[in-house]
Design a protein that fits this description.
Chain lengths: 50, 635, 274
């Protein structure tokens, strides 16, 4: 649609994977943060700790 | 001339319609009052005999001897909350509660409307000043004009409500007067201030339209809002005091100052919740006005104006509506923190069914809001790009809506447990919890925001170089947030304990918030200086306007429903734990009875709003001078 | 014109649909608790247990939280043998109460729920040291001592255990109320002389219907021996005149505890015992 921003297929793939990875990490951190703030710690695999 | 004729025709239709409406109301009223009559025959007062161990001398008030440790109890000026018996409540033949219910709700609807309208009028006026677009300024002025009568209507219902309360619940009102004391005077004084600012703000509009005077005008608007908000939070403190009293001791004697009485645990959550909801409500009502005007004209220029006005009002309403569940969550969390019993009475007791109705209402609001946005995409040339998403959004909305209203996701009440023949019904167990509904609600909010975002994007093309990255990030955030919400709901909801289940719903809500915030941030950066595609106001199908009627009706009804639950969680108390309600109406009415009452107040509100709009239109109507009939005039 | 009809019709139709939804749902009314009179003369233990069950389900609002998992928000009391559970609690090092038997433990749990918080059910952030449960003898639930006894009887009986609480007599009910630990509601003034006798536990030292000496002298014919003034003095200031052969054991604080009305009722009542 926008002519001036042509980016190659491979680069585009990298961008999409990177975006997905960043989002995954961000929400993983968010879950830990929010649950910890409520005094409900989680293990690394998101199971309840303790 | 044409509009004049239209007006008179409309009025005639109005009176026809009114007769029909009144008979409908009468039928509803009979339904709603009947159970009360049935109840009155029982004469419970005689059977209420205090149990052994708590006996007290006949004819004397029960005075619990306070612990000797609480020395305040010995101070002479402490007066405990009155203990009423049934004979202390005047019997007027119809349910006192029903009378107060209707008056209070109408007062609250109009109060919400006239608090919200000046608020977004001020914002729109400011936007007009910033953008230099005169359309905003005239729209703000028009909003003020159509809601002007609303201030008087609010005051009339407020006065009637106070009168009804003093007549029907004298002891309770005496106690409230005693507790809040001088605050009532401040409250009354604020009305003078509010009226002063209201009239100078409205009538001074054109006199102070440009230059420095515009800033004076904006300041008047700010002061009007300040007075209005103060009135609201003061009135809120009475309601929250009744739910969670503070500043009084166990028997209701005042031990704190007025600030401690007002600042109960639920005060600020209610203030925030009502503040946000008022904006949404006001936006929805004004949107309906614009939709009506749109439908009743064929003039393309007027259509464009009212289409734009309806869109802006709807925009305000939906924007205010999106954070409302979070404010509601805070309120509910504070209720649980104040009294777990009260929280569970609301969410898991007999009132639990109410949340099915709430789901229907919120579902209606979300569907109507989304539908309006989709229909509005026909205004812009660039919206074709996003058409495929609409099917997906509609699908998610419908599935979530159905999940939400499915009754088997309810907690069981005690009597239902008894009907099942014991408390150990293991088959129903996994279905009787909230997680499925939590997932549905959050997904509905997310896709509504998606609709909104797509609509905002539909007339723009991003020109920044990092647009592909921004898009990828936005899509990834949506996908991961949805996955996260489903994961949190399913895993913590069904496979861990209750504490983690409740905790995970906070994480779900946070995920939704992250999507909304990220969406706003990314889009505002990405579409800075974007290329704008042409859009055509007024190019929207007529049927889309009905979404703008569905919105205020559902909003009004929802407010009525929430009033029912807010008042009912107090169970048989005027002031929770401090002053018992011994009136004939001290039971929680059935959901069906509440439904009838809410429809009555909604229809009454609709009629009064129509009256308000009609009065506003009168000021713009001028009767033509009657022409003297000349001889041989045209018949 | 037709626009007016269409929009009004649409709006009212929508409101009626919402009303219809509420009509389709189960119609339950939340009755305010009705305090019923209990006829102590004909009350059997079965009635008392049934009364306890009713209190547990309704007025006590226990089942709001005490439900089977996963919907409950507190231990599933109805699914547990509470007598056996209480012995487990006594052995638990986290138990902070003083009671020694099941009935005592259950009463303690109702009056002061934080004495033992079952792991996982404490208030959020309190690490299971504070219970979210309200004190049952206080507002808003406000069960009387007798009502709490009835619930204990029900909890003992439902699993076939022996019921150790006794049927309520005016004296017993008053004693339980008076013995409620700090924080309990102070006893209300008695309405009749009989209630006052029970409330101040006179009969634990004085035989009321014979002259047999217990700790103190029997009072069946006390009106013959003492005048009203002397009776009043004996209650208010027991040490002034001690009947020969009895220890000075009578509490001296009745003057503080009794209301004037209670004292006068007692004096009248005793003076008439001739």
């Amino acid at each position: 649609m926008s002519e001036e921003n042509k980016i190659g297929g491979a680069a585009l793939l990298v961008i999409w994977i990177a975006a997905l990875a960043i989002s995954l990490v961000a929400f993983y951190g968010l879950d830990h943060l929010i649950m910890n703030m409520q005094g409900l710690p989680l293990n690394a695999d998101l199971t309840p700790a303790g | 001339m044409r509009s004049n004729r239209q007006q008179s025709i409309r009025r005639k239709g109005f009176s026809n319609r009114l007769g029909w409406l009144l008979s409908l109301l009468a039928v509803l009223l009979v339904f709603s009052v009947t159970p009360v009559f049935a109840d009155m025959g029982m004469g419970g007062a005689e059977q209420r005999i205090a149990p052994i161990g708590r006996v007290h001398i006949a004819g004397q008030d029960f005075v619990p001897a306070a612990d000797s440790a609480t020395s305040e109890a010995e101070a002479p000026e402490l007066i405990a909350a009155p203990r009423t018996s049934r004979k202390d409540y005047p019997n007027i033949g119809v349910s006192s509660r029903a009378v107060v219910w209707i008056l209070a709700q109408l007062h609250l609807f109009f109060g919400a409307l006239v608090l919200a309208v000046p608020l977004f009028v001020l914002v729109i006026e400011l936007v007009g000043l910033m953008t230099g677009d005169e359309r905003y300024d005239s729209m703000a002025h028009e909003f003020m004009k159509i809601s002007l009568t609303g201030f008087s209507i609010t005051a009339i219902f407020g006065g009637s409500l106070a009168l009804a309360l003093f007549l029907l619940y004298p002891d309770f009102m005496g106690y409230m007067m005693h507790v809040f004391g001088a605050q009532w005077l401040v409250y009354a004084g604020l009305f003078f201030l509010e009226s002063f600012f209201l009239y100078t703000y409205y009538y001074g509009w054109n006199a102070m339209r440009y230059g420095n005077l515009k800033w004076v005008h904006l300041s008047l608007g700010l002061l009007l809002n300040g007075a209005g908000m103060t009135i609201m939070v003061m009135a809120n403190s009475w309601a929250t005091f009744m739910m969670a009293p503070s500043g009084v001791n166990e028997v209701g004697a005042v031990i704190g100052n007025i600030w401690e009485v007002m600042k109960g645990p639920l005060w600020n959550p209610i203030n925030l919740h009502r503040f946000i909801a008022n904006i949404g409500f006001g936006g929805a009502v004004v949107g309906a006005y614009a939709a009506y005007k749109f439908l009743s004209t064929k003039d393309m220029e007027k259509r464009a104006h009212y289409d734009w006005m309806g869109y802006t009002s709807n925009f305000i309403a939906i924007l205010a509506f999106l954070p409302l569940p979070f404010a509601g969550y805070w309120l509910m969390a504070e209720i649980y923190a104040y009294s777990q019993q009260m929280g569970i009475t609301a969410m898991g007791g007999i009132l639990a069914w109410l949340f099915i109705v709430q789901a229907v209402l919120i579902g209606t609001i979300l569907l109507a809001g989304n539908y309006y946005l989709w229909a509005g995409m026909s205004r812009t040339e660039g919206s074709k790009r996003y058409k495929p998403f609409i099917g997906f959004i509609a699908f998610v909305l419908v599935v979530c809506f159905l999940t939400w209203v499915t009754p088997h996701t309810l907690m069981l009440s005690a009597s239902e447990i008894a009907q099942l023949g014991g408390s150990h019904h293991h088959i129903l167990g996994p279905l009787g919890i909230m997680p499925a509904k939590n997932i549905a609600v959050n997904l509905m909010l997310i896709v509504t925001f998606l609709s909104f975002q797509l609509y905002r994007r539909s007339d723009k093309v991003a020109t920044v170089s990092w647009a592909p990255i921004g898009n990828a990030l936005m899509v990834a955030i949506y996908v991961v947030a949805i996955v996260n919400i489903i994961f949190l709901g399913v895993y913590f909801g069904y496979f861990t304990n209750t504490v983690y289940k409740v905790g995970s719903s906070v994480a779900q809500v946070s995920s939704t918030l992250v999507v909304i915030i990220a969406g706003i941030v990314i889009d505002s950066l990405m579409f800075k200086n974007a290329k704008t595609l042409p859009s055509h106001w007024g190019r929207i199908p007529d049927r889309a306007q009905y979404a703008l009627f569905a919105l205020p009706i559902a909003f009004t009804w929802l407010m009525g429903l929430m009033g029912y639950v807010r008042s009912s969680v107090k169970t048989h108390w005027h002031v929770y734990t401090v002053m018992k309600d011994n009136s004939p109406d001290n039971f929680i009415p059935t959901i069906g009875y509440a439904g009838n009452m809410i429809t009555i107040v909604t229809v009454l509100f609709l009629l009064f709003v129509l009256f308000m709009f009609w009065v506003a239109s009168l000021s713009g109507t001028k009767q033509a001078k009657p022409e003297t009939v000349t001889e041989g005039g045209v018949a | 014109m037709s626009v007016f009809f269409k929009t009004i019709g649409f709006s009212i139709g929508l409101a009626l649909i919402f009303t219809l939804v509420t009509q389709l749902l189960p119609q339950v009314e939340g009755e305010a608790p009705v305090e019923t009179k209990v006829d102590l003369a004909s009350l059997t233990m079965d009635d008392f247990v049934a009364m306890g069950e009713d209190l547990f389900m309704n007025k006590g609002t226990c089942t709001l939280c005490h439900k089977p998992p996963p919907i409950g928000r507190a231990p599933d009391i109805q699914g547990m043998d509470m007598v056996r559970t209480s012995t487990e609690r006594f052995a638990d090092e986290r138990y902070q109460g003083e009671s020694k038997d099941a009935a005592g433990y259950l009463l303690e749990s109702m009056i002061d729920p934080s004495k033992f918080v079952v792991a996982g059910w404490g208030k959020k952030g309190s690490n299971d040291t504070v219970s979210p449960m309200p004190a049952i003898d206080k507002a808003p639930i406000q069960l009387s001592a007798m009502e709490m006894d009835a619930i204990i009887a029900y909890l003992q009986a439902k699993d076939g255990n022996e019921v150790t609480v006794s049927l309520p007599s005016p004296e017993a009910a008053a004693e339980v109320a008076a013995a409620a630990p700090a924080g309990g509601v102070a006893p209300a003034p008695a309405a009749t002389a009989e209630e006052a006798l029970g409330k101040y536990a006179c009969s634990s030292c004085h035989a009321m219907d014979s002259e047999d000496p217990l700790v103190g002298p029997g009072l069946a014919t006390v009106g013959r021996r003492l005048s009203e003034g002397e009776i009043r003095q004996s209650i208010v200031d027991p040490a002034a005149v001690i009947t020969e052969g009895f220890p000075p054991a009578m509490p001296a604080d009745f003057a503080e505890k009794m209301t004037v009305k209670e004292l006068e009722m007692l004096v009248q009542h005793l003076a008439e015992k001739k």
